[in-house]
């Protein structure tokens, strides 16, 4: 059997969730959209269901998958509905629903709903992606109340730059939010992972941690609370071939790496078809036989090459960690010019093996 696999540590997932609650003292919706950032939404939801205040997903398809697996906890649709006819299912399955646009508000006003909805009214406080304009916010709130179709409203917004700890942008977004919600007595939800970890003074009755649940830091620099996260996914494989190369010989497609000295090369069963980033350059860290080493040359579809020259204990069959508890996914992502969110979401083909449930 091909040795490439992703080990998912559900105990670490629970640790990270509890950290979000502990440092904020708030209720926390575990953001498990995009198949729990590649970690498997159903398994992650099952592992958290005993303690999570609820879950957040991107769309009704993801929410229905959770209900079909028997998850009864609250599930928030972060983008609400895409078409008004989803409202019947939203009511049937008790999903919580973001309203980010006036067309959604109008659709609710016009719908006949069997039970009142639980709405998270989203303000565009400066990110300028989705969310109501501040000038429309109070009116939208009153219209929702007046519609008679709403049981509860939570006021929410989303940060564009909370991962930049020296930026004033998040504080400005909070000011816009505070002005827009003046006089409304409703619970609020602002903080994503970087705001949970890095912005202790931003209020939130509900926090919405995503990437931190999976144990990856949202920050480029070291950060004290992020250092307490436990990586959840270990992407592992083995050395399937070893070769000795004389100085001057190339490695892999495009001869992107030329051995500067006699070298010992290990070929690992892992490639971009598994989600390992093709952009990762020579020098990207890996762990082989318990020792840090580096990627050499271009990543191919099913294989990649690593340096065994100074790892004498490594050989055919040696275990390799591409990212996990020793090699941080955020470091691999940075080397590849991307973010851990993307390398997790790109995971495919490798079996996911769970522990700690
Ligand atoms: C509205 C909203 N809240 C929370 C999150 C979680 O963000 P993070 O993974 O940075 O914690 C996301 C993710 O994109 C989001 O869109």
Structure, described:
The chain has 357 residues and is of the alpha/beta class. The chain folds into 2 domains: 10-219, Alpha-Beta Barrel (TIM Barrel), CATH 3.20.20.10; 233-355, Beta Barrel (Lyase, Ornithine Decarboxylase, Chain A, domain 1). It contains 11 helices and 18 strands. The strands form 3 sheets. An 8-stranded parallel sheet has the order 8-7-6-5-4-3-2-9. The chain has a 6-stranded antiparallel beta barrel with strand order 10-13-16-15-14-17. It starts with a strand and ends with a strand. Pyridoxal-5'-phosphate is lined by residues 31, 78, 158, 192-194, 208-212, 218.
Brief overview:
The chain is of the alpha/beta class and 357 residues long.
User: How many helical stretches?
Assistant: 11
Shape: elongated
The secondary structure category is: alpha/beta
Q: What's the architecture of the largest domain, going by CATH?
A: Alpha-Beta Barrel
Low-pLDDT segments, ≥5 res: none
Share in β-strands: 15-25%
The rounded Rg comes to 23 Å
Which ligands, by name, code or SMILES, are bound?
A: pyridoxal-5'-phosphate
Distance between the termini: 25 Å
Number of domains: 2
Mean pLDDT across the residues is 98
CATH superfamily of the largest domain: Alanine racemase
Strand order of the largest sheet: 8-7-6-5-4-3-2-9
Q: What's the CATH class label of the largest domain?
A: Alpha Beta
CATH fold label of the largest domain: TIM Barrel
Estimate the helix proportion, in percent.
25-40%
């Amino acid at each position: 059997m091909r040795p490439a696999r992703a080990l998912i540590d559900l105990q670490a997932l629970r640790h990270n969730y509890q950290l979000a609650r502990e440092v904020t003292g708030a209720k926390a919706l575990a953001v498990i959209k995009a198949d729990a950032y590649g970690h498997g939404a159903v398994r992650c939801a099952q592992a958290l269901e005993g303690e999570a205040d609820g879950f957040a997903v991107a769309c009704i398809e993801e929410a229905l998958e959770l209900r079909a697996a028997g998850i009864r906890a609250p599930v928030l649709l972060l983008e609400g509905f895409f078409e008004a006819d989803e409202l019947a299912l939203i009511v049937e399955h008790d999903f919580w629903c973001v309203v980010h646009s006036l067309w959604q508000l109008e659709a609710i006003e016009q719908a006949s709903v069997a039970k009142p909805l639980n709405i998270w009214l989203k303000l565009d406080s400066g990110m300028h992606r989705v969310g109501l304009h501040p000038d429309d916010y109070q009116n939208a709130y009153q219209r929702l109340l007046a519609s008679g179709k709403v049981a509860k409203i939570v006021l929410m917004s989303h940060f564009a730059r909370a991962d930049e700890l020296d930026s004033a942008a998040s504080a400005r977004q909070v000011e816009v939010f505070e002005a827009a919600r003046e006089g409304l007595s409703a619970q609020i939800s602002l903080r994503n992972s970087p705001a949970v970890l890095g912005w202790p003074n931003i209020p939130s009755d509900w926090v919405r941690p995503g990437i931190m649940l999976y144990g990856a830091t949202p920050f480029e620099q070291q950060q004290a609370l992020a250092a307490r996260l436990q990586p959840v996914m270990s992407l592992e494989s083995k050395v399937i071939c070893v070769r000795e190369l004389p100085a001057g010989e190339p490695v892999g497609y495009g001869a992107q790496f030329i051995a500067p000295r006699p070298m010992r090369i290990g070929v690992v069963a892992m490639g971009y078809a598994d989600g390992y980033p093709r952009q990762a350059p020579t020098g990207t860290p890996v762990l082989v036989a318990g020792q840090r080493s580096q990627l050499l040359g271009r990543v191919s579809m099913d294989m990649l090459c690593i340096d065994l020259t100074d790892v004498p204990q490594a050989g055919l069959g040696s275990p390799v960690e591409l990212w996990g508890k020793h090699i941080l996914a955020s470091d691999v992502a940075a080397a590849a010019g991307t973010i851990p969110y993307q390398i997790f979401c790109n995971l495919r083909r490798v079996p996911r093996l769970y522990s700690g449930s």
